[in-house]
Amino acid sequence: LRMARIHRGPGEPVHRLSISIDDAVSFLFGLRNRGSTFGIDRMKAFARLLGHPERQYPVIHVAGTNGKGSVCAMLEACFRANGFKTGLFTSPHLVRLGERIRVNGQAISDQEIVDCVEWMRSLADQSLLCSPELYPTFFEFVAAMAFHVFARDQVDVAIVETGLGGRLDATNIVEPVVSVITSIGLDHCDILGYDIASIAREKAGILKPHKPVVLGWLPEEAEAVVREIAADLECLVIETSRLQCMELPKTSLAGSFQRRNGAVSIATCELLRDHFALQMSKCRKALFEVKWPGRWQEIEVCGRTVILDATHNAEGCRCLEEHLMGLTEKPVVLAGTLGEDRANDLMEVVARYAREIRLLVPNQPRACSYESLEKAIPDEFSGKVTRSTIAGEFPPSASAETDDVPFVVTGSIYLLGEVLARIEGNNGQSPLAPLQDWV
Known about the structure:
Layout: E1 3-6, E2 14-17, H1 21-33, H2 41-49, E3 59-63, H3 68-81, E4 86-89, E5 101-103, E6 106-107, H4 110-127, H5 138-152, E7 157-161, E8 178-181, H6 189-192, H7 196-203, E9 213-215, H8 220-233, E10 237-239, H9 256-271, H10 273-276, H11 280-286, E11 297-301, E12 304-310, H12 314-325, E13 332-336, H13 340-353, E14 356-359, H14 370-376, E15 384-387, H15 390-393, E16 407-411, H16 413-426
Parallel strand pairs: 3-7, 3-8, 4-7, 8-9, 9-10, 12-16, 13-14, 13-16, 14-15
Antiparallel strand pairs: 1-2, 4-5, 5-6, 11-12
Helix pairs in contact: 1-4, 3-9, 3-11, 4-5, 7-8, 12-13, 13-14
């Protein structure tokens, strides 16, 4: 065992024997196996043990059915372009756990994860082990880790994405300078509700008294719910879609919906311009520098164009259709998802544009089986359908392709993570690959 520098929150770092990254992973994996229990009581207790790091910097809190990750990435780029030291917390990750926690655009290292886990676990074991109902879950532990890292590194601003919903999400212990709701649609209905109004009420749970909220393009029913809650809390409401002076900005991310996300980001920056002395010209320029993997991301693998696009709900499928319509060649589509409803939405769109569909099953407990995916393909699809694997599609010693037909990998973001891990040479077996939220 080697000696490591362990950060102890507000106090001085000390030296002690360090655990390994494998030990840290095993511990976090065990928390994941305890499941996801929604509510913020555990998170409040854990944050109190850590000295409330989430209160040591301004926070922008972002929720939404779709687009919240992209908006977070855009906001982070805007603030960094203006010279601010930024913290960014998003989920899930694609390949490495550290991707969830970024300081100035850089993911934290394995050693930082080890240091945080060792110190934070010690505190939790001393104070919470005797109260299992208060011991943090996997997502809560990682969110708390992000809050600690941002405080330790003294960020000027943190952009924090909710994990699921808003009202009962672990991140909802923050007191933001502004809340953002990007979109509202039907997803995670078993947890958030089976109608737009119920889901809107859950998302609007991130609103705080007297703090403004910026809205993206919301259904009329959802907007009414959010405005009702905002009025009760005396929150200023900025609705991006109704700003007369707002033009949809171009961004480095493909799709008209990303231009809407860009507009939400710019509206948020405009709101905070005086508070942070933001130069809006730098914000708009920063939108051309945004990198957000897995969102119509084009890469080259052995001479072939491979496009990765996370599409995990009905609203996302509409965005996928826009992209597929713009291709000059019908693609080969590799698809896999979680949940039969999602499979039905995905395959309905894919079947209209694919020349061939290859089915993949992500390495997740809720992944759709080959049989379920096949059942979701419309009867009128006349192309070839095959069952495949990531290893089979991306062999380690593949020869260069000469065919210019694009491959589109779509569906679950966890599937995309496995594909990227495989392409990057991890054979889809990164030690951190299992550490996902499974939702």
